[in-house]
Every structure is written in structure tokens, then in C-alpha cells.
Design goal:
This protein is an alpha/beta fold. The chain has a single domain (9-136, 210-279), classed as 3-Layer(aba) Sandwich (Rossmann fold). The protein is built from ten helices and nine strands. It has helices at 45-51, 79-93, 106-117, 139-156, 158-169, 189-211, 217-221, 242-251, 264-267, 269-279, and strands at residues 9-15, 18-26, 30-34, 56-60, 69-70, 99-104, 122-128, 227-232, 256-258. Strands 1, 2, 3, 4, 5, 6, 7, 8 and 9 form a nine-stranded mixed sheet that branches. It is globular. The relative contact order is 0.15. It comes from Streptomyces paromomycinus. Keywords: Hydrolase. GO terms for molecular function: triacylglycerol lipase activity.
Amino acid sequence: MNGPTTGPTTGSLRVNGATLHYEVRGQGPLLLLIPGGAGGAASLDGIADELATTYTVAAYDPRGMSRSTLDDPEAEQHVAEHADDAFRMLELLAPGEPARVLGISSGAITALHLLTTHPSRLTRVVAHEPPVVEVLPDAAEHRALVARVQETFRTQGLMPAMAVFAAGLKKDGSDTAPQPEMKLPPQAAARAEQTMANLPYFVGRIVAPFMSYAPDTARLAALTDRLVLAGGQDSRGELAYRPAAFLAERFGTELLHFPGGHTGTTTHPAEFADVLLKALIA
């Protein structure tokens, strides 16, 4: 399924409780991109174009984000259901064929669950800074952070809640919060507007269930031949970086570093894609 050189082929996929918008470009083996945070498929346009010379690159808006609509806008969200959405996407675009997956942030949590439930469908999964804070020794502290974010969102609104969230994500001992996940280049005004529109859903429906998700670490340990845990060069010490680093050490595998920080796909797309292409060779 190849799109024209002027842009991706777009489509929609009906799944349980939602309709997913997806985009496909390039040719070759399937590479599925799962965006994170409040970003949809458009947030990965920069790397998708770079990768499409080697792979059939598919990206989609996770359920409830951007152009992927929910039947019930108030429905609770679950990692397992988001992972099933990714599996349905694989089945649509490369039925029965092994595929590669890149997951970013909350999308990396989806990718980890997908790997534990459908390992035979995947040859390589790159998980970039999945905030699976439940694996950390100080998990209770991060549960308290999520609770503060939710309470602030309920009582004070979106931006105060984002300020609490950003403060909790910063480096240990740092007075400067990391680049917020919704940060996009100035020239991407339309994308920034859409990302801002997604933020209430992200804070209200995604942050808590995803950051309370505890991955099956025993299962993941048995699948390290196809799992690449990754972090940003500039993210060291930040909360989103720590779980991947912790799991890589626990599994005795190397933590792959990508250029930039948590939003390296946006700030360093060409360099990020170059590192990813090397990591995807199974």
C-alpha cells in the first residue's frame, strides 16, 4: 500500500469503540509508528518521511486523539485496548507478516504491551522513553505525582495541571523542567494547535492509566532479542528516561540513545531516523 510522493495515503480503521485515522507512505517491510503524549500521526511526519525510503511507514492517531474519534468521548482508556488498536493496524496493513514498531512515550507503553501479547508478529520493537514508572524503586512518589496532576486538572484546569506535570518530569535536582511533550517547532502552527486541542484528553484520560500501567517484566525479559529500550541523549535523569534505563540494566541489555530529548522525533528528525534505521535491523 503505497502513497503518492506528494503525501501519505490516508484511511480509517474501525476498532472497538473508536475509529482510527491512519497514514501510510513509502515501500518495503511495515514499520508502525505509535505517537505519544498529545501528538497524533502528524507529530511524526518528520521521521516518517525519512523512514519511507526503506519501509512502508504507517502512523496513526491513537483513539481519542486528533482525527481518531471515540464512540463515547467519556470512555475510560486502557493500555491493553490501545495495544489492541495497534495490533488491528498491523493486521490491516501487513496481515500475518512480521512487522517493526516504534513507540514514543505513552505510545512506547502501548508498544511494550503489544510485544508481550503478540510477540510472533513483531521482529523489532523500539520503545523510546516509555514512562512505565511502576517499575522504578520510587514508584510511590510518581503515583503521588499523577494524583496531584489529576486533582489540579479537576480543580484548577489544564495549564496548572500541565505545570505540575512538567515539574514532576524534570531532572532530579534541576530547577528547569524538561521540554513539554506538546512542544512543536514554531513553523508547525497547525500541528501545535491540534496538539493543544488534544491536551485535555491526554491529561484527563491518558496520563493516569498509562503511568499506572505495570508491564510484564518477566515476559519482556524473555523477548529482549526483539526489544530495544531507548532514551534521549538530553533526557538523562528525567522521569520519562528512567524506566527504560532501569529496565535495560535489569535485562542486561544496552540502552540505545537517540539525539535530542523526550521530543527528539520533532527536534532532530533526520538524525533520529538515522539512528532508528540502524536499530531496526533485526
